[in-house]
Amino acid sequence: MIHLGIIGTNWITDQFVQAAHETKRYQLVAVYSRKLATAQRFGEKYGDIEYATDLDTFFGLAHMDTVYIASPNSLHFEQAKQGILAGKNVIVEKPAFSTPEEMAEIIELANQQQVLFFEAARNIHEASFSTVAEFLPTRGAILGANFSYMKYSSRYDAVLAGEEPNIFSPHFSGGALADLGVYPIYAAVAWFGKPQDVHYFARKLPTGVDGIGTAVLRYADFDVTIQTGKIADSELRSEIYFEDGTLDLNAVNAIEEAAFYERKTKQTQVLAVSALENPMIEEAQDFADIIENKNDPQQGQRYEEWVELARSVNETVALMRKQAGIVFDADKK
Amino acid sequence: MIHLGIIGTNWITDQFVQAAHETKRYQLVAVYSRKLATAQRFGEKYGDIEYATDLDTFFGLAHMDTVYIASPNSLHFEQAKQGILAGKNVIVEKPAFSTPEEMAEIIELANQQQVLFFEAARNIHEASFSTVAEFLPTRGAILGANFSYMKYSSRYDAVLAGEEPNIFSPHFSGGALADLGVYPIYAAVAWFGKPQDVHYFARKLPTGVDGIGTAVLRYADFDVTIQTGKIADSELRSEIYFEDGTLDLNAVNAIEEAAFYERKTKQTQVLAVSALENPMIEEAQDFADIIENKNDPQQGQRYEEWVELARSVNETVALMRKQAGIVFDADKK
């Protein structure tokens, strides 16, 4: 049984704990929050939980072996670092870290300390995502792709009222690319590899982060166009173009519809995909596979692939952010 | 009655003649083709037609006042020039001309000769297109847009077989942008004005023209992303993002579905739009309005707007083509 502690007491933390418990491989044992009442309010429904209001106490809990970190983005790095130094595995909600330097330091430190680091990019852990990955090499050459993930954030109302909620703040490493764009970029990098070049066209908000943007990821033989945004709603589907037809996807996260239209035969091949009600169960299972089998070479290889994927996505996003002139506090360290 | 001559004997010419006749304001009087048999085969169903196999004879036909030119793109310029010098109005199928120099010369020459030049960009003449144009200023500020027009061309089969059909040839000013991309660019320039900047990411074919590409048109406050291609099929819809909601369109040409989702009220407002079975009737009507009322100031203003729109689109496309390294024979003149 994995003994889980959590940092963050919002809806996504709750969803992760429920997913983790549903696998029957994790048990929540500790909750950190700056305020005890907040920690208790979050933890009471989960039974016998320890509460901590300072990180030293939290990471000092000996029976906790793995920590899920879902604090504001800019806090992930110091918390993950402290956790790793305390000998804990760390599962860090995406986007795990603000800069390639932070990412590299954490990966190196986790290896040194012989603990595990996971970026919780849930879409790449979906069974549906793997179904698509396995489908790709069965068709003709890829000619291009269009991926979209754009959804209005209710917290943008606060920005319009002159406030600066964390998710729209450069102090907390927020913005459309960091929060939503990272999913289609993960999809592109997981399915096609790290792009050779990238171009990000973003519209910045008064807070300094991007509200909406279009990215073009350039590969040797094709381009992937990505639409993202947190100040508007899009219902656009996603598509991958092949020499011999087009794969239509409802999205590149929570994939629940995938169908290949073959031009020559005019036949549509429907792929067997579905999305779970709790989209974090599959990643929780994947992480548990590694945590419970640290010395299994096959699991070790999967782990290395995810780590290098996280690194490639982080480097890609950092370059895009630089192109768009989005400067985080984390850049100034 | 407008006495119409045509250059080109393919399906699009047929569609235009049928559209023109349906308005009851045009009468086909002459057909040009290099081969008499081809001209006759095309014209016989239209009754009493004159046939010409050389352009001097064709443009010398005194009772023909207006010419529709749908030859391969690279031939438009010399044919339009000859027609204008012979005192004919010229309706030139899109893309009218290969370079801004050609476009400027034709516009100037038509003014000098007091005849009319129209680029047959049919989508901007649709009633549906105007309905959308009128809708735009009724909502909040525009935050962005995504327009798609990508369709596999059966003539690409010939390219794959090592041939070079005109529509995929730089000798004939072909390619995805020239043939299909021009429609969404027309939509963007007509609805939002000429972009301040443009970026075109294209994939070139062995023939030297673009087979598929993504463009980002940058405006003062938002970006328009455009997907086009002739080597793959896309079913992506088009969207315009506003501060207060999203306008969903089935496409930006032959618009037959348009609905605005208002975020605050969660209400969808369906716009009354429909596409005609023959998509060229509306442009034929528009051109006839001008031709029949050359001295009406209001019609003159509409005409000037279309001419300047054609110029802006041509300049935008030329810049995009240059960025993508697509060189036409027409560039070398």
Q: Which quaternary structure do these chains form?
A: homodimer
User: How many individual β-strands of chain A?
Assistant: 14
Helix segment tally of chain A? 10
Would you list the SSEs of chain A in sequence order as H and E?
EHEHEHEHEHEHEHHEEEEEEEHH
Helical fraction of chain A: 25-40%
Q: What is the CATH first-level class name of the largest domain in chain A?
A: Alpha Beta
Largest sheet entry of chain A = 8 strands, mixed
Q: Largest chain-chain contact?
A: A-B, 37 and 37 residues
**Structural category of chain A:** alpha/beta
- How far is the first residue's CA from the last residue's CA of chain A? 38 Å
* Spatial strand order of the main sheet of chain A: 8-9-10-7-11-12-13-14
Categorize the overall geometry of chain A: globular
Q: Rg of chain A from C-alpha positions?
A: 20 Å
- Average pLDDT metric of chain A: 97
How would you characterize this protein structure?
The structure is a homodimer of 333-residue chains. By secondary structure, chain A is α/β, with parallel strands linked by helices. Chain A has 2 domains: 120 residues, Rossmann fold, CATH 3.40.50.720; 177 residues, 2-Layer Sandwich (Dihydrodipicolinate Reductase, domain 2). Helices cover 35% and strands 24% of the residues of chain A. The first copy, chain A, contains 10 helices and 14 strands. The first copy, chain A, has an 8-stranded mixed β-sheet, with helices on one face. A 6-stranded parallel β-sheet of chain A has the order 3-2-1-4-5-6, sandwiched between helices. In chain A, helix 1 packs across helix 9, helix 5 packs antiparallel against helix 10 and helix 8 crosses helix 10. The mean pLDDT of chain A is 97. At the A-B interface, strand 7, strand 8, strand 9, strand 10 and strand 11 of A face strand 7, strand 8, strand 9, strand 10 and strand 11 of B.
